[in-house]
Amino acid sequence: MAAAGAAGSRAGRLAQPPKGDLVRLRLEFTTEPFDLDEPPRHAVVAREVVEDGTLDAVDVGPFGNTAEGSADAVVAAVAELLRRTLAAGATRVSLQVSALGEDER
């Protein structure tokens, strides 16, 4: 029991950014199925989500998309991206979220 409690409290500490640091994240994602002839509806919706939100450094391409922003903005965009692209017909949404280092901000 004590080990589980220690692990739980340690996990809680890891989830919180260090005080005083502004956490900036990079989101990379793709939606499927692919269509090289014309963008499927879910791809158009994904583009709308990242371009209309509060993210910046947005790069939308045929094989992958990236955007950057504050932790709150990226987390909100991920939730919206999943809701809207799946509703628009995506069968898979692959994403990666990375914390940017000081030299990448």
User: In percent terms, what proportion of residues is strand?
Assistant: 25-35%
Count of discrete domains: 1
Helix content: 40-55%
What is the general shape?
elongated
- In the CATH scheme, what's the topology name? Alpha-Beta Plaits
First-to-last CA distance: 41 Å
Note the run of SSEs as H and E: HEHEEHE
Q: Could you tell me the mean pLDDT?
A: 84
The CATH architecture designation is 2-Layer Sandwich
What is the count of DSSP helices, taking H or I runs of 4+ residues? 3
Instruction: Show unreliable segments.
Output: none
Structural class category:
alpha+beta
- Number of DSSP E strands: 4
CATH C-level category: Alpha Beta
How are the strands ordered across the major sheet?
2-3-1-4
